[in-house]
Amino acid sequence: MTAVGGALAFAVAFLSPAALLALAETLGACLFVWAQIAAGRELARTLGGWPRASALVLALALVPVSWHRSLRAVLVATGAGVALIGLVVPLGAVLVASTPAWPRVWAEVASRPRFIFPEGSAWVTDGEPVRTPDASDAVLRFTEEHRVTVLGAGGSRLELWEGGARGDLPAGTELAVRAGDRLTVADGTRLRFQADRRIPGAPANGPDWVSPPGPSVGPGALAGLGLTLAAGALGLPAASAALGRGASGIRAARVGAGLVVAGAVGVLLWALYAAWLTPEIYTGGVAGIEAYELPAHVRALGEAGGSLRLLALGGLAAGGLAASLAALGGSGRVLPAAGGPSRAPLVLATLVAGALAALTPTGPWPLLVAAFALGASTLAPAAILVGWSERATARSLAAGTTLGLTLFGVLSLVALWIRIGPMPPPAPLLGVLLAWPALVALPANLLVAWLGTARVAAAPRSPLAPGLAELHE
Fold this sequence. Notes:
Layout: H1 2-14, H2 17-47, H3 53-67, H4 69-97, H5 102-110, H6 122-125, E1 128-129, E2 138-141, E3 146-150, E4 157-159, E5 165-167, E6 173-177, E7 182-185, E8 190-192, H7 206-210, H8 219-235, H9 237-243, H10 247-277, H11 304-330, H12 344-359, H13 364-377, H14 379-386, H15 394-420, H16 428-435, H17 438-453, H18 466-469
Antiparallel strand pairs: 1-8, 2-7, 3-6, 3-8, 4-5, 4-7
Helix pairs in contact: 1-15, 2-11, 2-12, 2-13, 2-15, 3-11, 3-12, 4-10, 4-11, 5-10, 8-13, 8-14, 9-10, 9-11, 13-17, 14-17, 15-16, 15-17
């Protein structure tokens, strides 16, 4: 706590309030855009891949487009509309072609004795490439006898349960694996499996799919996830920009929240019907994009399934573009009005996001959670406080934001150190706090910001930044 207090005192003493708030906003935008570009990278891998440098090129293209207000508004609205169409239309076609009674689908999947490769699956006839969530080697563990054909050359290795191994398997090798054997293949290697055999990597059965074995998710983790997603949305740049437009912004935020809820329901239905109709998505691990391959595997859709698949994947791409532009366009709301907002931090954050997406295999979900956690820890309390109290000042909000940012950073680094270092696992409560730093950072931020405004009314010498001041409207 001494280090936290020292960092807080240094930041408040030597940095302007606007700079502190802008720092938190820039970091949040960087994480959020990084998550969207990482999702685009996963989408490109599904469609055949892209050069690593493409992520940085995409980041470079986002910067000038985000500056052009009218073009950005058109692209955000268009992208959001295409994303909604890509989510709803293919899913609706799948429901009509199979059954719209999702409770029966849930019961069917939950009661399965095992998940197997169905007859006629592309994995059984022609073979399919194995994809992993982080582009690392895929390790397939078999729980029953299986006949597997390696269709891609290079890097494949079969480890036998009783010891020994066969390495560097050439293309066309047919393997008779047994329960306990492990097959390691490079990401993207094509494999052909035997029909009516258990899918390696899939849940053991329906009950395990409903409730996976292992440590259960306790109330602390659920509270951490709920607080991170709910409060974190207020701290994202796009949300602060919308709220900063006064009453019209609040209405826009409500519409956006409704679309997010509808999108979440749609994604859950995608995952449910994919587990029912195409359980092969579990092969090698699930990155999330595989579920949107579903229309192409529904036989009743015929040739239209391929077009609906492209529509679904195109909707994902359009949604990522719209979200990135909204975040970048919303950035700068808390910067000083004099001289206009500085674009240098925004450019740097975007380029860093593109470089990190190109150089690291990190998937979009952990980055998105980190962006929401940072928003909940830093700017969300400011949005809450200025909408509730007219005594908020830029300096009091900056003090709370600095404390929230410091706690978020310290807890995240400790969690990373425990994960990769020799330290023993923490106690359950400490583990929850390390996994969900907003549980600590958000109330601490809000308390410090509120204590700084309790007896001091807003004064001309310490005005709120434009984006925050408009929250009082």
